[in-house]
Design a protein that fits this description.
The chain is globular. The protein has two domains: about 290 residues, FAD/NAD(P)-binding domain; about 110 residues, Alpha-Beta Plaits, CATH 3.30.70. A hairpin with a 2-residue loop joins β3 and β4. By secondary structure, it is α+β, with helices and mostly antiparallel strands. It has eleven helices and 21 strands.
């Protein structure tokens, strides 16, 4: 790829280089398509890298593996190159950042980082091109197929596909989180205290005292924390929780980052002044990306519902499974407002949730798939996003090769190809009883 080019051409363009986007690109490139990722940040990986989100959750259920395929390939590449930076499903986000560069090189995937999509060009009911802007100035990228892995359905919205945000009754979205790492922690002392005291009223009283003293809103009820493989005396924290932020409004997001960092500074003080093993702890890094659990999602050919998840519904056009709970971080305050798991251990994600009949050559992957507020609270986690990315990339490649549309590709061929590439799909290599089918 000409680094100075303003006009680029590809078979498949993936908008967004998070875990769904890189997975889609892997599958498209593996099928022989010239593939380009356009990413607005300076590295691939999204929440797994710039968001400091780890470990991977929702891979196994009831003793069965539900997500495989590109997830396995990513983890194996990570282990091969950074063996001390990964355990079974936990990883160092910095090692993941480098791993995804290696994968892109392995598959000769072109990458445009630090690049924004400003508009699209439509021809009838197809996306013909996307307009971009970066340090080279304005440009245009044409392709035959496009995959929206922006997390916010940015491209789908530009294409006129109907979208929804948040709850149906008031539009409120789940609480967001800006993760951070602290160093110089004696984890052997700190973690037992953190993981036990979060269930005691004394810890909540402590948080309330600091909230009043430093005039910050504290909505967390515990400090969920994880050790980072390969980093001694470092913990990553899945706090602070913030509400009332609109993930598709620039001013609101800016306020969200600043508010979260104010709270993080207070949390660091709480750690140093109260938690054993943390007297000399310091803020090592703060996530570059706000943990947006929910923003805009498409209204696709099928809308996955909360009842589909709860009942563990299976579909004839299933392209992956999902086993995480409906995990709604309260949009209005503290706690989790609903937490219900799929009956039987997993539900399916149907292919029809990845596209709209209104646009022939556009798929979505990740947390902007067609789902209700409740269903998205289950399907938003990274392994499921990787799986929907693999499905979207494989489908786009088939459409490119067969000169057909998203709604007309052969579902049987798609499912066979996904399983051939390691994906786990109900009715083929995943049963309601025990595999193999």
């Amino acid at each position: 790829m000409d680094a100075n080019a303003h006009n680029l051409v590809a078979d498949i363009v993936v908008l967004g280089g998070g875990m769904a986007g890189i997975s889609a690109a892997i599958s498209a490139a593996r099928a022989g398509c010239k593939t380009l990722i356009i990413e607005r940040r300076t590295s691939l990986g999204g929440m797994a890298t710039t968001g400091l989100v780890m470990p991977f959750l929702g891979v196994f259920s009831k003793g069965r593996k539900i997500i495989g395929g590109n997830l396995d390939y990513i983890l194996q590449t990570l282990k091969d190159n950074f063996p001390f930076s990964v355990t079974k499903l936990a990883f160092d986000p910095e090692a993941m950042r480098h791993t995804l560069d290696i994968i892109a090189d392995n598959y000769q995937i072109d990458i445009l980082l630090d690049t924004w999509v400003t508009d699209i060009v439509m021809r009838s009911n197809t996306v013909a091109a996307v307009k971009i802007y970066n340090k080279s100035g304005a440009g245009i990228v044409t392709a035959r197929q496009f995959i929206d892995a922006t997390g916010d359905a940015d491209i789908a919205c530009m294409a006129g596909i109907p979208c929804k945000v948040g709850r149906d009754n008031d539009g409120k979205t789940q609480a967001y989180t800006l993760r951070f790492m602290m160093g110089n922690i004696d984890a052997n002392q700190a973690q037992p205290w953190l993981n036990e005291r979060d269930k005691e009223k004394g810890f909540l009283d402590l948080l309330e005292t600091y909230a009043k003293r430093y005039h910050v809103p504290i909505l967390d009820m515990h400090f969920q924390n994880f050790e980072v493989p390969g980093r001694k005396d470092v913990l990553v924290f899945n706090v602070p929780r913030i509400i009332g932020i609109d993930g598709i409004d620039g001013c609101s997001l800016s306020e969200g980052y600043r508010r979260a960092r104010r709270i993080i500074r207070v949390y660091a003080r709480i750690m140093r002044e109260n938690v054993p093993g943390c007297a000399h702890a310091y803020i090592l890094s703060t996530a570059e990306s706000l943990g947006v659990r929910e923003s805009r999602r498409i209204v696709g050919s099928y809308i996955l519902t909360g009842d589909d998840v709860i009942q563990g519904k299976k579909f004839a056009d299933a392209v992956c499974g999902n086993c995480w709970w409906i995990d709604i971080h309260n949009p209005q305050g503290k706690g989790v407002s609903e937490m219900v798991g799929p009956k039987g251990g997993h539900n399916d994600i149907p292919y029809r949730a990845l596209f709209s009949d209104q646009v022939d050559n556009l798929w979505v992957a990740g947390r902007c798939i067609s789902a209700t507020h409740e269903a998205l609270a289950s399907a938003r986690i990274m392994p499921t996003c990787i799986a929907t990315g693999q499905a979207a990339g494989t489908a786009a490649a088939i459409a490119n090769q067969k000169n057909t549309t998203a709604s007309l590709i052969d579902i049987s061929e798609l499912r066979r190809k996904l399983v051939q590439d390691g994906a786990i799909i109900t009715g083929i290599n995943l049963c309601d009883g025990h595999p193999p089918c």
